[in-house]
Specification:
The complex is a heterodimer of chains A (222) and B (79).
Chain A lengths: L1 E6 L6 H10 L3 E6 L11 E4 L13 H4 L2 H11 L3 E5 L1 H9 L5 E3 L7 E9 L15 E8 L3 E3 L2 H9 L3 E5 L10 E5 L5 E4 L17 H12 L2
Parallel strand pairs in A: 1-2, 1-3, 3-4, 4-11
Antiparallel strand pairs in A: 5-8, 6-7, 6-9, 9-10, 10-11
Chain B lengths: L1 E8 L6 H12 L12 E6 L5 H16 L5 E7 L1
Antiparallel strand pairs in B: 1-2, 1-3
The chains are: A alpha/beta (222), B alpha+beta (79).
Subcellular location (chain A): Cytoplasm
Subunit structure (chain A): Part of the FGAM synthase complex composed of 1 PurL, 1 PurQ and 2 PurS subunits.
Pathway (chain A): Purine metabolism; IMP biosynthesis via de novo pathway; 5-amino-1-(5-phospho-D-ribosyl)imidazole from N(2)-formyl-N(1)-(5-phospho-D-ribosyl)glycinamide: step 1/2
């Protein structure tokens, strides 16, 4: 399984994401934002956390219009897998691949702490390694993680079982406690919490590792 | 020609920064502030001299980059 991890100026979780994927058995290529094409044979694209382009204008807005993002969008439109964490989630909403937007946290503070995450659906390659309803502990680290989506899109997300994770104790004001959402074809996931930072024993727990191992297992056998 | 773009959170989207400003104004003794919305102003210096053309171009910039129309509204002013 060949994964690409995109690197923007200001990305700071790119290596964490690559290590989590590698430990799960993926071959990982780091791809610079000025590149216009993915390496040949990429099955999966990771859009990492960080502060791409200094969060100028809006979080993720500049990155979403960078050359490599055209390739990310076309990969997703062809049915490819794309996974965005934190700033990666913000970028994916800015591209329009995922609905909604991430606003400033309701309490206006940058929050960096482990949170409880409830797995709302096991029906995706990302969440299939967990049980529906299972609660895992994964850290968040963001200033703009307050997920906002209009009532129609919220009803659609719920009706189509596309809410992947919710917070057990909403830290940022997100609508319906939403921490992560899936695309219509369930192949694009964006989430604010960082499973790659809870992926081995030395991180405190390894509850994020099942996400990566399930992705790799599913794509190897695909 | 200069264009000024105003970007605001749409009505109905909670603006926590505006709310914080409203509270701060209240604690300074400015009573009667019922609502505060905070937005941004972006100024562009354009080579274009035709007003209609400039307005079209800046509107396209807003749709593509300057505003996120999922949560924000914008207005374009030529000055």
């Amino acid at each position: 399984m060949h994964a690409a991890v995109i690197v923007f100026p200001g990305s700071n979780c790119d290596r964490d994401l690559a290590v989590a994927l590698e430990r799960a058995g993926a071959r990982v290529s780091m791809v610079w934002h000025k590149d216009t094409e993915m390496p040949a044979g990429v099955d999966f694209i990771g859009v990492p956390g960080g502060f791409s382009f200094g969060d100028y204008l809006r979080c993720g807005a500049i990155a979403a219009n960078s050359p490599i993002c055209r390739s990310v969008i076309s990969h997703a439109n062809k049915g490819g897998y794309v996974f965005g964490v934190c700033n990666g989630f913000q970028i994916l909403t800015e591209t329009g691949l995922l609905p909604g937007a991430l606003l400033r946290n309701a309490a206006l503070k940058y929050i960096c702490k482990p949170v409880g995450l409830k797995v709302e659906t096991a029906d995706s390659i990302y969440t299939g390694g967990y049980d529906k309803g299972q609660v895992i502990t994964v850290p968040i680290a963001h200033h703009d993680g307050n997920y906002n989506v209009d009532a129609d899109n919220l009803a659609r997300l719920k009706g189509e079982d596309r809410v992947a994770f919710t917070y057990t104790d909403n830290p940022n004001g997100s609508v319906a406690d939403i921490a992560g959402v899936l695309s219509e074809n369930r192949r694009v996931l964006g989430m604010m919490p960082h499973p790659e930072r809870m992926a081995e024993a030395l991180h405190g727990n390894a509850e994020g590792a099942a996400l990566f191992s399930h992705v790799v297992e599913q794509l190897v056998h695909a | 020609m200069k264009a000024r773009v105003h970007v605001m959170l749409k009505n109905g989207v909670l603006d926590p920064q505006g709310e914080a400003v409203r509270h701060a104004l209240g604690s300074l003794g400015f009573d009667g502030v019922e609502k505060v919305r905070q937005g941004k102003v972006i100024e562009l210096e354009l080579a274009e001299t035709d007003e209609a053309q400039a307005r079209d171009t800046v509107t396209a910039m807003c749709e593509k980059l300057l505003a996120n129309t999922v949560i924000e509204s914008y207005s374009v002013e030529l000055v």
